Amino acid sequence: MRACWKEAKPPEIERRIKANNHEYNAQFEYADNYICTSKYNIATFIPKNLFEQFQRIANAYFLCLLILQLIPQISSLPYYSTVVPLVIVLTMSATKDAIDDVRRHISDAQVNNRESSVLRSGKLVQERWHKVIVGDIIKMENNQFVAADLLLLSTSEPNSLCYIETAELDGETNLKVRQALVDTAAMGNNEDLIGKFDAELVCEIPNNRLSKFEGTMKWKDNKYSLDNDKLLLRGCVLRNTKWCYGLVIFAGKDTKLMMNSGKTVFKRTNIDRLMNVLIIGIFIFLLSICLGCTIACGIWETLLGYRFQVYLPWESFVPNTSLGTKSGSTAEGATVISLLVFFSYIIILNTVVPISLYVSVEIIRLFNSLWINWDNKMYYKKKDTPARARTTTLNEELGQIEYIFSDKTGTLTQNIMEFRKCSINGKSYGTPIDRFGNPIAVTDEGPLKVDFSENPYSENNFEFFDHTLQDEVRRGNPKVHQFFLLLALCHTVMPEEKEDGVLEYQAQSPDEGALVSAARNFGFVFKSRTPKTITILIHGNTQVYDLLCILDFDNVRKRMSVIVRDPKGKIQLLCKGADTVINERLHPSSADLRELTNHHLNEFAQEGLRTLNLAFKDIAEKEWEAWQIKHHEASISLENRDEKLSAVYEEIEKNLNLIGATAIEDKLQDGVPETIANLALAGIKIWVLTGDKQETAVNIGYSCQLLTDDMEEVFIIDAEEFKDVEIQMKNAIKQINESKKTMNHQEEGVRVANGSVTFSKENDNVSLEGNQDTFALVINGHSLVHCLMPDLEFVLLELGCSCKAVICCRVTPLQKALVVDLIKRNKKSITLAIGDGANDVSMIKTAHIGVGISGQEGMQAVLASDFSISQFRYLEKLLLVHGRWSYLRMCKFLKYFFYKNFAFTLCHFWFAFFCGFSAQTLFDPYFISFYNLFFSSLPILALGIFDQDVDEYYSFRYPKLYYPGLVNLLFNKWVFIFGAVEGIITSIVLFFIPYGAFHWAVSPWGSDLADQQSFATVVSSCLVVAVNLRCALETAYWTPFNHVVIWGSIIYYFCFFLLMYATGVIWYYQYIGVAYAVFASANFWLCLLLTNVILILPVVAYKFYMTNIRTSLSDRIRMKQRLTKSRSKTDLPVRRQSTLRRSTRSMRSGYAFSHQSGFGELITSGINMRERARSNDAKTPVILTKVKKLDGASGGKKMAVSPTPLKSNLPYEEEMIIYSEKL
């Protein structure tokens, strides 16, 4: 198997490549195209895995213990009692790691063994990906993955264009366009010419910048500039292009895809890290006990032990032994014995942290992982994709997540845009209404969606429920006709007719495609285009419009326009864009219509729809000719061309006539708003890190309930310069602090703010809906560059952590990882990153927990993740149910495990006071070996696997139950100390009550029962019964298996020792007959009853007090009390209601076209056109009709809810319950 590492080479300064020249390129030792995401190979697995495992302090501790047990002079227990469990633990962990790594090897092999057509010696040969090297020329065909980072040379399309899908890189499914140099494009598909291609390239070194590339190429005495538009990146898919050739520039681990993948890190849970600290503390405690026993042994041997050498002679190597083998003083002999006793007690008392602890932990984690894998409610039937726990070591950490870092495209959204509503000439369409004009809810039963079957170009997946709009189209309403005509003409969409006659659109952004698709379904079909014409089909009649100019979209203009000449020779400017920019350019005659349209826009915005305004302008022939001259002069300018073109555009885009507005749903994945609302109620803060622009991200923030109307302020950080960014951030922090001061200085009593009630009376200082987290932060990528610098990162940290939600826009994959790392380094919080594309891999690997979504954007994120799900909504169950249960089970398990082992181990310590501190064990060696294996392990394993405090339904209903995990409430140092102290007290009771009961005890036959073996049997019996009853008290969720293992362990103990200690049944053993003699004694049963009553009764009383007096939230829920404070989506609808606090303008600026400029320049240049469309019939005459405005006609597939105050079914007294405990 191939090694995953190579000797380091000198760092690159620049990369030099000669095409088709392997000898020249080999001198630089560039990486080949082999990738390796695995951690081990056959040679390195055992040493590397053992090194990693012995980094766990407990494993190193048991290794040292094993070495001590190999010394016969100090070992009172056989060495195999440690060897066997240690080997089992190491083997189980190594097997799990090996399985995980084998999966990585299989995945790597699948990728490395893909085949590509590579040009070798002037001929195309099929070559596996891992044999491709820098300087090779590859031929790719349609729908193939790009094997490496390539310089595009030539393609099958006109002017060497090609289209690629970058979903693996950035999660976007809309196509991108790339174009080769004109001179290289001339080689076409000629293998001889391409085989002789000998250009020399000088370019940048490998880096992770997906959107930037710089280089130069020398060929035939010419020098060419290279940029990102000529680069095909590994992970892209070739679309709508028959073939293309590319020169390999970066291969394997040097590709931008792999550079963004980050390193695979070894992840440990928060409990694991705490366990390491506790192990050190326990070891110090153990050393102190052993040291005390050592000193006591030295004193006892000096004063008394020396005189008993007739019965217990000292060893031959001990000075002043009675055997006479070594001379010396009594003090010297006692010192040697006490030193040996020190190590003996370390071996005896090591069971305070037995190795079975880690075996049990691994078993519990395995089963908790299987519960995730077997959960049918997290199975996505459409994609046949179940949830998967790709690691078994991080389950309980799912119950402690405080920060979630999420991608947007493909993670929160489906990256599918749907035309939902529109406003035309002051009338709103999209909400189905009855004959009385009342809105009808869209359900499975009705209303029926509009039937477009009479249109041969309609799409089956297009849904619209308002029949009145189709009726207006059929009646020939001129305003409606003009509305859809604009949608069919004003765009940069590229049409493609498949071989089967199906018309498909390729849009630079999915929402632009949705608008053209809506026009198509209503009978205004965009059919084809040339550089100078647009052909549309209006209800079967073909019309050809002359395309005079495209005023393309960019992020500053927030609009696009086209100037067309209709078949009658009339020139019009058609414009669509954000309402903020369109309204500024309207003619005064559109004032009344603007008010009506704005009202509809507000309604659309409340539903989270993305809106655009549509307007037009008639242009006179002379005005067009004069403007065309100015436009031409600006377009050929060599200086400030963009600024001059913007000024020319601004000149003609004014005095527009408003037509209406569109409302598109950026379709969220099912259940996203509810999921985010519930996670927020659980106390989890969500940060969205997206490559989208600000308006798009903010729109989605409101749609998915990440941003809400209740928030005091949404801070926007968008400055370009360092100083300006610093000022914006500090002003935001100042405003937050002032708000907190205002809240703290308000008068006592009940006050209302933002719809939330706070009761600030001195003795009941509890907030039903706190105000401290009512801020949100939106920050742009160019501002984030400054924020992540050392001088500002702590300011960003303070501001971000003071806000309930944070959205970072236009961020790079590296910035995503840096933001996650900032929180991870500086906050004692557990982080989770979730994404679906290769651009999310870095943050997934950086976070404590990485979750990959197996969607349409590829599998890169899944392969790098710890858990995989198919829909974002499943994250709610993963955290609030599986994560919380796993955390609860592990905390209960650890607390109980330390309790029972302190109780067991310290019995040896109390016995030391009665055996001269000689390191003699109290219990039978077989009982010591079997205690954690058979008599007490299965009940706690059952608890760790099956236990639940509340069921799944209430876990969703009351997300506040998640809070204990956020603050490490259920297992921390104090919980451990409490459990250890309880174990110490239990050991005292277990030892001294039987000691007192059997000190003068005799059997019915008159024989003495006060021997060491009988006493050990009594103590061990009381111990087994007590710890199993204690486990029963900890169990909240009983299954048949719990009953079997708890009561079965007690019964098994008695049966086992009755059989083992029976006279001559198996073999002759020193404990023969002890069990029968002890169990036949009434003293034993009375002692067993008394001991367990004393141990269990205080625990029952404490639990009664905590359950009935100091009731926790889970206790209240188990008692089925309805809590207003912790209601979730089951009780309260998550739809946003309109408020006066926030302006909806931000919602209506969602002109979410591509981040780059559109296809405008390509269209007008003609380089992507094959043939000119033909003109056909003239357009239909326009008939004017009256327009009647319908009130309340807002809402989409999901009906708008009337803003009636929510009514509760609870009595007033229950509504006003204020709980005094902190959650």
From TrEMBL:
A Pfam family hit: PhoLip_ATPase_N
Enzyme Commission code: 7.6.2.1
Annotated positions binding Mg(2+): 407, 409, 836, 840
Domain P-type ATPase N-terminal intervals: 17-83
Binding-site list for ATP: 407-409, 512, 553, 576, 610, 690-692, 810, 816, 839-840
Cofactor(s) named in the record: Mg(2+)
Sequence ranges assigned to domain P-type ATPase C-terminal in this UniProt record: 862-1110
Transport recorded as keyword: yes
Transmembrane regions: 277-303, 336-359, 897-919, 925-946, 966-993, 1013-1033, 1045-1069, 1075-1102
Membrane topology: Multi-pass membrane protein
PROSITE patterns hit by this protein: ATPASE_E1_E2
Enzyme class of the recorded protein, top EC level: translocase
Catalytic activity: ATP + H2O + phospholipidSide 1 = ADP + phosphate + phospholipidSide 2
Protein's cellular compartments: Endomembrane system; Membrane
GO molecular function: ATP binding; ATP hydrolysis activity; magnesium ion binding; phosphatidylcholine flippase activity
Organism domain of life: Eukaryota
Residues at the catalytic site: 407
Keyword Lyase belongs to the record: no
GO BP: Golgi organization; phospholipid translocation
Keyword list, A-Z: ATP-binding, Lipid transport, Magnesium, Membrane, Metal-binding, Nucleotide-binding, Translocase, Transmembrane, Transmembrane helix, Transport
Gene Ontology terms: cellular component: plasma membrane; trans-Golgi network
Record family assignment: Belongs to the cation transport ATPase (P-type) (TC 3.A.3) family. Type IV subfamily.
Listed name of the protein: Phospholipid-transporting ATPase
Species whose genome carries this gene: Potamilus streckersoni
